[in-house]
Specification:
The structure holds three protein chains of three kinds. By secondary structure, chain A is mainly alpha-helical. Chain A has one domain: ABC transporter involved in vitamin B12 uptake, BtuC, CATH 1.10.3470. Chain A is built from 15 helices and four strands. In chain A, β2 and β3 form a beta hairpin. In chain A, α4 packs across α10. The two termini of chain A are 17 Å apart. Chain B is mainly alpha-helical. Chain C folds into two domains: 192 residues, Rossmann fold (3-Layer(aba) Sandwich); 147 residues, Response regulator (Rossmann fold), CATH 3.40.50.2300. Chain C has a seven-stranded mixed β-sheet, with helices on both faces. Chain C is globular. The chains are: A mainly alpha, B mainly alpha, C alpha/beta. At the A-C interface, α2, α3, α6, α10 and α12 of A face α1, α3 and α4 of C.
């Protein structure tokens, strides 16, 4: 692979001018994207971008620090509600409300990180799961947050510019996403990131080497909660209406699945995993419309199963993907990519 | 005073169904260190299978239940054989994701096959017939659940402690390579463990189904069962049952006296607090961490 | 790093290339077709309500097979949103901007509907009969949104009124689901009680996820209520009635129209639902109204898959679409959105299998210009799932 000779080479963002060129092409095409496609696809891209942010944050926690979190929907909800409430009830402008809500989410992440210091495996899973569930229950009961009626998100105004359409929101969103992903990538390459990886691989050994576990574990929780909070705040504006029941356990499980399917410990993996799962989620809505498989499924349903329940195949598809990836390629989709790369590198031997 | 006793009785009643699910989870965790998220759906598919036998094939209740138990054991063994064994790198997160995947597949199948409408289970004991003692009532179904939970727990505890098979299971958990060297067929042991756990889950599912029967009915009992298992210590069978009852009683008391709205919240808060004090649960004997 | 970039570029190019060509979003009307869209949860915990859009689909199929509307066939687009507002919005956007819908009908759920309400309003796309009796559709009234489901608050008022006036009950307790639906019922009931100078002896709320309702029933029992008004999901109502019977607590139970499917309720409560009084928003499944019998024979028996049940949710799909079909017929051949809205506004006293539907010219201060129904009638469940009509259609203003 690409061998690094010293620390600075490893930390470098762009290793050569060619890389810079392609990167610029990528950024350019991302910005030009909304000008060539339908409005619906811009909405899909917005939705995917938000999930990419969450997946990247969760990847930091699960992939790089080796913890488990089944409650990220809770941080997502805190970000969403925080932004909307700060904007609607306290009159904050959007660019201030979003980071504030994210910091509130980070604070809760820190709080969750404290008991997580002593917990591992299924115990940690239950603690985070419980956290995710209780957050939605508590929000649902407080009238300030609209209770169970939900809140409508106000329009975003930056200066005097009102973000009304999906296209305008896309530009804001893609800028934020690129910025956050670059930040995450750099974070991983610094000593903070190396501390996280050390904790994942052997935390007692890391402690003996001088890595302050308390600080770094809670930091991991806080940063991943921050990312989830920002994504949540943006999600409130994509959907324009939020309600506690949107942030279900199933959402937390989907986030975790995105990270695992994409590849633990790889940012590329998180992006790909998020994109794939979100796109499948949206596309599997009308399973009977797929050209040949749809008809076959319809026949099958009429005979052995119920036609009315046929949309439940999406659960089967998701479950199979999750099982398949863990069984056959523990490194996720990124692992598949690495394998194909290795194969073609040594072809034709 | 009467209300207090009634609430405690309610708590014990609801704790029994949590205890059964928790038992099923702990059995698997004891042998293979896998927290099985698919437990609820395995129970679900067994219950729907029973319903199908009872309503479409018109079998008698006892033969249908017997067949269901056989089906449950086969299901557990099959899942272990086909899926869990193939996992190349069993770290906890991977296992959790695999079991969640299995759960989704099973859920999808049940919803696809049976539709989403609520069905009824032709169970011999109606869910709302009850015994009345003074002013306290407890339904017959709940008494049955309680008896089943305690009975199963005792049987399993004795099984694990005194029987050869149980000893082999404990050995497999502690060090599977050493167990293999000694001559224990670890693969078969794992398969049997999953089979037994699926059986316990099927019992739980059958006892829940008279009250309510739709594809999402097992999510809540499974979560609470899992929570009870974690609180009691994932390796201790009596611990799970006691923790489940504690959870049920505290939930009901809180709901009755303090606030009915935050009932579910308090359950998880208690668990987190317990875990803060005792990280491996209340009754787990040791927490060995390999460096 | 370079290889990773190549990967990203490749993936995004592939993604771009896989996108469908940019279809011109039409009004949804051609010489031979009208495109109408709807959504409903076919998966997930709310899947029982998935029967509503399926009913609408069968109804449209029947209309097409009987000649269509002025020579045009209805092309029905339904998608599954799993009761997830994000998916609802995605689906509505995709259909609206891809194929282009003329109008939307039905649509199950308050929160999914709220996610798309403003989007449809901004584009002035007509939407008839959202499947939820929430105040959000008509407060404030919108030009394009025609509500057919009677308001929950009104129904609760009617039930309380009946309990106090006709049955002489004094102690009324309310068990409600802690969401928009339950709270609307609560508000209606409390308003009616307040108008009579009474108060509810207990107000017990519960979450949709709660599976153990014994504490709630204990609170109800403690309040010694003689009427318990339930505004919850069918699942919860079943539990409340059952636990009350076990606890030997026997008030008069009243419930909202979502549980008025008596054959189903009797089946899943194993007979305990007998004696419960419900509001309704349409005819009962076994009523002998000729139109309902006709629908059952021609629509359900012919088009529904074999595991579908002739129940309230299924023909509710027909109920919500009836005013739309009536308006489409009245518009005639020259079909535009403005003509359609005008035709909807002209509907006055239309009765299908539901309550009387009347709209009026758009008046943003009058919710009844867009809330078409305000009638309900009360029924009591008898043995065997039969129903006894307690009142006739009555206004709930």
């Amino acid at each position: 692979m690409d061998m690094k000779r010293d620390y600075y080479e490893d930390v470098q963002l762009f290793t050569s001018p060619v890389v810079v060129f392609w990167f610029a092409v990528l950024i350019g095409s991302l910005y030009l994207f909304p000008l060539v496609v339908d409005n619906y696809y811009i909405y899909v891209a917005n939705y995917i971008a938000i999930n990419i942010i969450v997946a990247a944050g969760l990847n930091l926690l699960v992939g790089y620090t080796g913890q488990i979190s089944l409650g990220h929907a809770g941080f997502f909800a805190i970000g969403a509600y925080g932004t909307v409430v700060l904007m609607a009830k306290a009159g904050f402008p959007f660019l201030l409300a979003l980071p504030c809500a994210a910091f509130i989410a980070a604070f809760f992440g820190f709080l969750l990180g404290l008991p997580a210091l002593r917990l591992e495996g299924p115990y940690l899973a239950i603690a985070t799961l419980g956290f995710g569930l209780t957050i939605t229950q508590i929000i649902g009961r407080i009238e300030l947050f609209g209770g169970r009626d939900g809140l409508h998100a106000p329009d975003i105004t930056i200066g005097s510019w009102v973000l009304d359409t999906d296209k305008e929101f896309y530009f804001l969103l893609i800028t934020l996403t690129i910025f956050l992903l670059l930040f995450m990538r750099n974070l991983i390459k610094t000593r903070v990131g190396r501390a996280f990886i050390a904790i994942r691989d052997a935390d007692i050994a890391a402690q003996t080497m001088g890595v302050n576990i308390i600080y770094y574990k809670t930091l991991a929780f806080a940063v991943s909660a921050f990312y989830a909070g920002i994504a949540g705040g943006l999600y409130a504006f994509v959907l324009k209406f939020i309600e506690p029941e949107i942030f279900t356990l199933l959402m937390s499980i989907m986030f975790l699945a995105m990270v695992v399917v994409g590849g633990l410990g790889s940012m590329m993996g998180a992006i790909v995993g998020a994109t794939l799962l979100c796109w499948l989620d949206l596309k599997l809505r009308n399973i009977l419309d797929i050209p040949y498989i749809g008809d076959w499924l319809e026949q099958l349903s009429k005979q052995w199963f119920t036609l009315t329940g046929v949309s439940n195949i999406q659960y089967i598809v998701f479950g199979s993907i999750m099982i398949g990836i863990v069984l056959f390629e523990p490194l996720g989709l990124y692992g598949v990519w690495i394998r194909t790369k290795k194969y073609w590198r040594t072809w034709p031997f | 005073m009467i209300d207090l006793i009634q609430m405690i009785v309610n708590g014990i009643a609801v704790g029994s169904s949590y205890a059964l699910m928790g038992l099923a989870m702990v059995i698997i965790y004891k042998t293979s260190e896998v927290p099985n998220f698919a437990q609820g759906e395995m129970a679900l598919i067994s219950s729907y299978f029973a319903m199908m036998l009872l309503s479409s094939f018109n079998m008698s209740v006892y033969s249908a239940f017997l067949l269901t138990f056989v089906f449950a054991v086969f299901l557990g063994c099959f899942l272990e054989f086909a899926i869990l064994r193939r996992a190349k790198e069993p770290n906890v997160l991977g296992m959790i994701v695999v079991t969640i995947g299995i759960e989704m597949v099973l859920l999808g199948f049940v919803s696809w096959k049976f539709g989403a409408e609520q069905k009824t289970m032709p169970f011999p004991i109606g869910p709302y017939d009850s015994f009345i003692i003074g002013d306290i009532f407890i339904s017959k179904l709940e008494v049955l659940t309680l008896v089943a939970a305690v009975l199963l727990m005792s049987v399993l505890y004795l099984f694990f402690k005194y029987s050869k098979l149980g000893l082999a299971m404990k050995a497999t958990q502690q060090n599977s390579v050493a167990a293999q060297i000694v001559g224990i067929r670890t693969n078969r042991i794992m398969m049997m463990t999953w089979g037994i756990s699926s059986l316990v889950g099927a019992v739980a599912g059958l006892l829940i189904s008279p009250t309510i029967m739709h594809p999402f009915m097992m999510w809540d009992p499974m979560l609470k069962g899992f929570a009870a298992a974690v609180m009691g210590g994932m390796t201790s069978l009596p611990g799970v049952v006691i923790a489940a009852y504690m959870l049920g009683v505290i939930e009901n008391l809180f709901g009755g006296y303090v606030s009915i709205e935050f009932k579910t919240v308090v359950a998880f808060v208690i668990i987190v607090l317990v875990l803060c004090i005792k990280p491996s649960g209340l009754f787990a004997r040791y927490y060995v961490k390999k460096v | 790093m370079k290889k990773k970039l190549m990967l990203v570029l490749f993936v995004s190019l592939a993604f771009l290339l896989s996108l469908a060509p940019n279809l011109f979003a039409e009004e949804g009307v051609t010489d031979t077709e009208i495109h109408i869209g709807s959504w409903g949860p076919q998966t997930g915990p709310g899947a029982a309500w998935g029967a509503v859009p399926r009913g609408t689909g069968a109804y449209f199929q029947w209309i097409n097979d009987n000649g269509g509307i002025h020579g045009r066939k209805i092309v029905y687009h339904m998608f599954d949103d799993g009761y997830n507002p994000a998916k609802t919005k995605a689906g509505v956007k995709e259909l609206q901007e891809g194929t282009g819908m003329f109008a939307w009908v039905g649509g199950v759920g308050t929160s999914p509907g709220l996610a798309v309400r403003d989007y449809l309003a901004k584009k002035n796309i007509p939407w008839v009969g959202p499947s939820a009796g929430s105040m959000h559709w008509v407060k404030p009234p919108q030009k394009n949104l025609f509500a057919v489901y009677p308001l929950y608050a009104g129904e609760a008022k009617a039930l309380v009124k009946y309990a106090v006036e006709k049955m002489g009950k004094k102690r009324i307790a309310i068990a409600y689901l802690n969401d928009e639906y339950g709270k609307n019922g609560l508000r209606g009931a409390l308003a009616e009680l307040k108008a009579r100078g009474m108060k509810a002896v207990a107000q017990v709320s519960m979450e949709a996820k709660d599976s153990d309702l014994k504490p709630h029933v204990m609170q109800l029992r403690k309040s010694k209520a003689d009427v318990v008004l339930m505004w919850t999901t069918p699942t919860h109502s079943v539990r409340i009635v059952g636990i009350s019977k076990a606890m030997k607590f026997a008030p008069q139970f009243m419930s909202s129209s979502t549980t008025s499917d008596f054959p189903l309720m009797m089946h899943i409560t194993k007979g305990l639902w007998q004696g419960v009084i419900c509001g309704t928003f349409g005819e009962l499944p076994d009523s002998d109204l000729p139109l309902l019998v006709k629908y059952k024979k021609e629509v359900f028996d012919k088009y529904a898959p074999k595991e579908e049940r002739w129940g309230l949710f299924y023909y509710a799909g027909i109920l919500f679409a009836e005013p739309m079909i009536e308006a489409l017929k009245n518009v005639g051949r020259d079909l535009t959105r403005e003509n359609f809205v005008t035709a909807m506004e002209r509907i006055n006293g239309f009765r299908g299998i539901g309550p009387e539907v009347s709209f009026g010219p758009y008046n943003k201060n009058d919710i009844y210009s867009r809330q078409g129904t305000s009638q309900t009638f009360l029924v009591q469940c008898l043995a065997g799932g039969k129903a006894k009509k307690l009142t006739d259609w009555m206004d709930t203003n």
